[in-house]
Amino acid sequence: MLWFTEYYKGEGMELQGTGLSMKVKSSKYLKTPYQELLLLETEDWGKVLVLDGAVQTTERDEFIYHEMISHPALFTFPRQVEKVLVIGGGDGGTVREVLKHQPKEVVMVEIDREVVEICKKEFPSISKGLGDERVKLTFGDGREFVKDKEAEFDLIIVDCSDPVGPSVVLYQEDFYRDCFKALKEDGIFVTQSESPFAQNRVHRQVVRELEKVFPIVRPYLAFIPTYPSGMWSFTIGSKKLDPLGVAPSALGKLYRELVEREGALKYYNPEVHYGAFAIPNFVYREE
Ligand code: AG3
To answer: Total domain count for the chain?
Structure first.
């Protein structure tokens, strides 16, 4: 029996002698123009997508990441969301969750066509939304894509990998400024923002850079067993709407309607919505 290990290393990783191992039944390796791609069939986690040595998606826990990158922002809108931009997100899981809110249009800009092709074939339950007629899939650089956009999107979601290689530019203030401009006047931005335990400095940098750009910045947490340390974060930057300002009665109603229409969610619920924004002391400790 083979084992795969993600060795924690690379830009921003504060654990240097730690990793996560999984027992592997079979594996496929491929080099795309952008990264090294590994597709694993594992004993515990189902199929697993690994990019440049970092676990991205497992069939068993992907629901946590994809529900939590999408629903806290989407449930913050008191109105129907019309146009959503997803940057990255090649496996399609984020688009699947966004579609549950019945937007008119979802634009996804992914840099690596081969990731999408593999995920369409190997992860049909995750990528199924990508075939939806409301989804416009484009391949290219998300950083470039937002540069000339103005007041176009209700919501921008950045579903990117660690700040190495093609993702580095998605962690920088001038990118956040362009996203601000690309959003409508009550628009919301959300990005995955790494592990506050294992990548504390990167996490804090994301929050700090967003605070230079958006009046409302709200980091929040989710438990993701296959990511470094298991403690993961996302950060919302918002022009007007505060995810903590949503009235519980309004959220409860929207949530029940969605569940009735789309079926049960597996992680997000209204209690998780408010609770996720509670951050332990060590995360923003003085250094
Ligand atoms: N993107 C965030 C993955 C970061 C994981 N980091 C790591 N394993 N070192 C996930 C993409 C899912 N759509």
So the answer is: 2
